[in-house]
Specification:
30% of the residues lie in helices and 26% in strands. The protein is built from 14 helices and 24 strands. It has helices spanning 22-31, 48-59, 87-90, 98-107, 126-134, 167-177, 193-205, 236-248, 267-273, 311-318, 339-344, 374-386, 399-402, 406-412, and strands at 2-7, 13-17, 39-42, 63-67, 72-76, 84-85, 109-113, 138-142, 145-149, 157-161, 183-187, 208-210, 216-220, 229-231, 253-257, 277-281, 284-288, 298-300, 324-329, 348-352, 355-359, 368-370, 390-394, 417-421. It is an alpha/beta fold and 423 residues long. The protein has a 4-stranded mixed beta sheet. The chain has 2 domains: 2-19 and 234-421, UDP-n-acetylglucosamine1-carboxyvinyl-transferase, Chain (Alpha-beta prism), CATH 3.65.10.10; 22-231, Enolpyruvate transferase domain (UDP-n-acetylglucosamine1-carboxyvinyl-transferase, Chain, Alpha-beta prism), CATH 3.65.10.10.
Length: 423
């Protein structure tokens, strides 16, 4: 199991390229199964989650050719014959549950294991199943599997309101509805860029979708979808992570490239409240770090609000702030597994109810810390990069799920991170 050994205290200077969005890519991969023929998607990041999802699709009989170096994938489901996503694969990653909507939407039948994923918090799939039932699907549970079927002529359609709004449920309902027999309406649909990208992808394939980018999506079913070539968007969470890193050290001079600035929502406004600045032009963003970080409390919200996927990184930034700040997560209230590990590095931080309370200004000192999920992992790497001395961040396999070549990108900009392979 790999770990990172990090020598702290070095400013970041240079350029870091933002890769393709993982959270947008996975729905695109699932949607490609809705058409017969070869679909090509570009700007697909080289991540373990992508490799896992590729294997989930291969089980169905689909042909998958993926080159992580060129970030290009070819998907041909013409020989898809097996309508199951098995537990051994789905348990590794929640997004594999998108196979439910894709297989049901393609051939009117699916058997998909209930999902796994990061080791924190219940994230039930009730909304997915209730929505599919509202569209006319028969849903049964069988020994940990969801078994779904549609009438012979396809899903008849219907209306479903998501309470609360959910990216995952919106994606699954879109996938199932794209080739329905009638019309399907999703109310309180997620408006995240990942969902918008999926809608644009499906439209290019021939789907009919009204209300893209709004909270009400109306899908009028079509008989078939055609294979296409499509370019995935860049990763807004990776961009936000590196923006925060660029602000942490007062001597940093970091520029990000391949940034989709229009997909960052309200995050830049919160970022600027700390005293940090950003200058953007044609996909490039220069981060200007202040001499002193102002404490800024945040509350996570659905897009375009402050992202839950950046709250752990924000907590690390706030350890540098001159004063007290609070981070409240309304999306996943128990997403604070990083807090005890951040305290091991010397931070004055604790959890109260569904908020992390950080009293900034205390120096951080290197030590060994354990990561428990993807965003917690990167927050600990960030803290270790700022801490005095050397730190070991254990279980970095979490990072390989969501940050492509993290240590290489950071080392090119002046960090000192070594991947250590342990037996």
């Amino acid at each position: 199991m790999d770990k990172f050994r990090i020598e702290g205290g070095f400013a970041l200077k240079g350029e870091i390229a933002i890769g393709g969005s993982k959270n947008a890519a996975l729905p695109l991969l699932a949607a490609s199964l809705l058409a017969d023929g070869e679909t090509i998607i570009e700007n697909i990041p080289g991540l373990n989650d992508i490799l896992t999802f590729n294997n989930v699709m291969r089980v169905t009989g689909s042909r998958i050719d993926y080159d992580p170096e060129s970030h290009r994938i070819s998907i041909d489901p013409a020989n898809l014959y097996y309508h199951e996503a098995p537990y051994d694969l789905v348990r590794k990653m929640r997004a594999s549950f998108y196979m439910l909507g894709a297989l049901l939407g393609r051939d009117g039948k699916a058997r998909v294991s209930l999902p796994g994923g990061c080791a924190w918090g219940p994230r039930p799939v009730d909304l997915h199943l209730e929505g599919l039932r509202a569209f006319g699907a028969q849903i049964d549970l069988d020994q940990g599997y969801v078994v779904a079927s549609a009438p012979e002529n396809g899903l008849p359609g219907g209306t479903f309101s998501l309470k609360p709004s959910s990216v995952g449920a919106t994606v699954n309902l879109l996938l199932a509805a794209a080739r329905c027999a009638g019309s399907c309406t999703i109310r309180n649909a997620a408006k995240e860029p990942d969902v918008v990208q999926l809608c644009l992808f499906l439209e290019k394939m021939g789907a009919k979708i009204e209300g893209i980018g709004t909270s009400t999506l109306v899908i009028k079913g079509v008989d078939e979808l055609k294979p296409v070539t499509f370019r995935n968007t860049s990763d807004r969470i990776e961009a936000g992570t590196y923006m925060i890193l660029g602000a942490m050290h007062p001597d940093s001079d970091l520029t990000l490239t391949n940034v989709s600035t229009d997909e960052l929502g309200q995050f830049p406004a919160w970022f600027h409240k700390t005293g940090a600045q950003s200058q953007s032009d044609a996909g490039r963003m220069r981060i200007i770090s202040p001499a002193e970080i102002a404490p800024v409390s945040v509350i996570t919200e659905i897009y375009p609000g402050f992202p839950t996927d950046l709250q752990a990184q924000w907590a690390t930034l706030m350890t540098r702030a001159a004063g007290e700040s609070h981070i409240t997560d309304t999306i996943y209230p128990d997403r604070f597994s990083y807090v005890p590990e951040l305290a091991r590095l010397g931070a004055d931080v604790y959890v109260k109810n569904n908020s992390a309370v950080i009293k900034g200004g205390r120096p951080l000192t290197g030590t060994s810390v354990m990561s428990t999920d993807l965003r917690a992992s990167v927050s600990l790497v960030m803290a270790a990069m700022y801490a005095r001395g050397t730190s070991d961040v254990l279980r970095v396999y979490h990072l390989d799920r969501g940050y492509e070549k993290l240590e290489e990108k950071l080392n090119q900009a002046g960090a000192r991170i070594t991947r250590v392979r342990e037996n």
